[in-house]
Fold:
Amino acid sequence: MSWKKALIPLASVPVILLLAYGFRTDPKAIPSPLVRKAAPNFRLTIFDGGELSLEALRGKPVVLNFWASWCFPACYEEAPLLESTWRKHKDQGLMVVGVDVQDKEANAREFMRRFNFTFPNGPDPGSKISIDYGVYGVPETFFIDREGRITYKHVGAVTPALMEEQVKVLLKGS
Amino acid sequence: MGWRAVALVGWVLVIPWIAAAVLDLPMADAAGPPDLEDKVRAIASELRCVVCQNLSVADSPSELAKEMRNLVRELVEQGRSREEILAYFVSRYGEFVLLSPTKRGFNLLVWVLPFLALIVGGCGVYLVARRWTEGREAAVPAVDPAYAERVRRELRERERLSDS
Structure:
């Protein structure tokens, strides 16, 4: 009858395994189905005039950032990094594009002036681009290679180390 | 007083229902044709509001959910089917965006396990209950033949004494 007694502690093994798996995964980290897929095309009406489409940028690596002036502090933390990345790598063909999400135009312009944004930014009426990219909230950043494939998605403010690493990956594929 | 109270309760229950039915009609017309809005609502209620906790896109007051409802309406107007629209959202947000997981692959476990657990648990309870009741029957001890013989002898003795 000893094997029957062993059944009781044995029954707890699958439960412990399940809990071990469950507690080690972040329930908030939901993998994007878009990574390693073709980035959805979009047409952005730039605040400073003109239009920009992803299709027209084919052949250039793109850092696509979703932000909002009401997104404090994360968007305020990474804004200088976006601008400095653009200035540092634009001669190598890197594009930085900002999509302003659910914002008031005056507030968005104030935000761009505050951080001296010189890369193209535009609003997202109806959140069409955001939904097409499966955006949950701001900031979110997509790294798109020269072939128009998403290589990486980051949720939250991008750190300088991560930006450097991902931009290096994008620029290497030339 | 009995039937009057019943009638009163009846009216109290019925009046708000009639009022709601009457007031609802123009409200449904405001946003679009009723069947379009029904379809949009049905699809939106299958989608998770991604910025909420346990709310569907149909029920959430958030800005993103509102934009998603508008997009669903646009796609329905373009003649897209429910499956196509849900597939679009899944291709962007992953399966997480569906409030109920699809019934295939690994997800089947979620649908099957509760019923399986119920059946297995029910069998377990049945077996345990049967063993308990069987145990009770077996617990009646066998009578020691010597003791039984003594009882019978003493009873006979007693009868003999009372007869005489």
